[in-house]
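Entry:
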Amino acid sequence: MYIVYEIRNLKRVYIYVGMTSNLEERIKRHNKVYEKTTKPYRPFELIYAEECENRINARCREKYFKYSIGK
C-alpha cells in the first residue's frame, strides 16, 4: 500500500506533495534535512494523506495534486 501526502511548512507558504510506503519515516526525513527538495523549507506538518492500493494509483494521484486542478 502507498500513501500520497501533502505537508506544509510551518513558517512560510510552501506545500509539498509526495508519495511513500512509510509515511512516518518519510516525514521524519523531510524534517531532518535528508531530502534536497524540501531542505530549505522545514519544519513541516502533515496536512493530508490518502491511501492507494498500489504504486501506479498513488503516482496518478500524486500527479493530480501536483500538476492539475488538484493543486
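The chain has a mean pLDDT of 91.
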